[in-house]
Structure formats: structure tokens, C-alpha cells
């Protein structure tokens, strides 16, 4: 998994702040929320690590999976929260 950051208002150079296998990312499920947690550098400083948390609702995660073709979008209404695990 790669995470790149760059200027939002003008063209600029992107910086990769994370490059590691997805299995090293901490994944948590709490109720209807899926969290991805990882440590990575910042925009201006490579000396410090920052803890990042990405939170998705169950519906957002299902929509993301459907978008990348991992699940058929027609199944979305039928899936229960336990279907998110691998």
C-alpha cells in the first residue's frame, strides 16, 4: 500500500509517506466502523512518524470494495457486517 501526499491548490511534487504491504496495516472493526491505522512520515519532516487513522462506515467500505470490483454491487443490501472480514 502506498500513500502519497502533495499540494492541493496547485501542481507540485508528490511525496510518498508510506510504502508497505497491506498486511502490515492495523485493521480494526468496531460496530459498523472499519478503521485502518498506520504510522507514516509527514509532509515536511522525515524525522518524525505520525499515527494516521482512516475510518469508514460499513456502507462506505462496502462501496469502496464494490468500486474496485471485489464484490458485486448488487450484493450490498444483503451483506452483514461480518462479511467484511477476509
Write the topology of this structure.
Layout lengths: L1 E4 L9 E5 L6 E5 L2 E8 L9 E8 H10 L19
Antiparallel strand pairs: 1-2, 3-4, 4-5
Please name the defining characteristics of this protein.
single chain; 86 residues; mainly beta; two-stranded antiparallel sheet
Tell me briefly what this model is.
This protein is mainly beta. It has one helix and five strands; from the N terminus they run E-E-E-E-E-H.
Form type: globular
Element-by-element helix/strand order: EEEEEH
Number of strands: 5
In helices, the fraction of residues equals: 10-25%
**Cα Rg:** 16 Å
Percent range for β-strand residues = 25-35%
What would you note in describing this structure?
By secondary structure, the chain is mainly β. The chain has 1 helix and 5 strands. The protein has one helix spanning 58-67; strands at residues 2-5, 15-19, 26-30, 33-40, 50-57. The strands form 2 sheets. A 3-stranded antiparallel β-sheet has the order 3-4-5. The protein is globular. The chain starts with a strand and ends in a 19-residue tail after the last helix.
Amino acid at each position: 500500500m502506498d500513500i502519497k501526499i502533495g499540494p492541493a491548490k496547485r501542481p507540485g511534487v508528490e511525496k510518498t509517506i508510506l510504502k508497505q504491504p497491506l498486511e502490515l496495516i492495523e485493521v480494526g472493526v468496531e460496530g459498523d466502523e472499519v478503521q485502518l491505522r498506520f504510522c507514516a512520515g509527514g509532509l515536511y519532516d522525515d524525522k518524525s512518524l505520525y499515527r494516521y487513522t482512516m475510518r469508514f462506515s460499513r456502507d462506505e467500505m462496502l462501496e469502496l470494495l464494490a468500486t474496485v470490483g471485489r464484490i458485486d454491487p448488487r450484493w450490498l443490501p444483503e451483506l452483514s457486517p461480518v462479511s467484511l472480514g477476509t
